[in-house]
Design goal:
The protein is an alpha+beta fold. It is built from two helices and five strands; from the N terminus they run E-E-E-E-E-H-H. The longest helix is centred in the C-terminal third of the chain and has 36 residues. Bound molecules: zinc ion.
Length: about 110
């Protein structure tokens, strides 16, 4: 399990449990918020925010990785390179999307004033 130091109170603790909460954004968009909470001061830390689109991008990434493993042929360098690029691209899309979603969520959270 991961050790972590709370930004708020400086307490050092082990993250033994992540919470998953379903929430709706201002525009009604449904998201899943992955977080953990400091046992001393109850400060909540957001690990990730997911939604349907990020799940779709994750599936796409996983199927491209599976496909790559299945048809991997060291002799066919062109095909290998092409598939690697595709995996890289899918990974980027997922990371960029999830980053944007998290930022949007945190911005709304700040406006709400927690
Ligand atoms: Zn704390």
């Amino acid at each position: 399990m991961r050790r972590c130091v709370c930004d708020e109170c400086g307490m050092e603790f082990t993250i033994d449990r992540l919470d998953t909460d379903k929430e709706a954004m201002k525009d009604g968009h449904e998201v899943e918020v992955i977080s953990f909470t400091c046992p001393k001061c109850d400060e909540k830390f957001i690990v990730a925010v997911r939604d349907e689109e990020s799940a779709r991008l994750r599936d796409k990434l996983q199927s491209s990785q599976e496909y790559y493993r299945k048809i991997y042929d060291p002799k066919d360098q062109n095909k290998t390179r092409q598939l690697r690029n595709e995996i890289y691209y899918n990974k980027r899309s997922l990371v960029v999307y999830m980053d944007k979603l998290k930022k949007r969520y945190l911005k709304e959270l700040r406006k709400r004033g927690k």
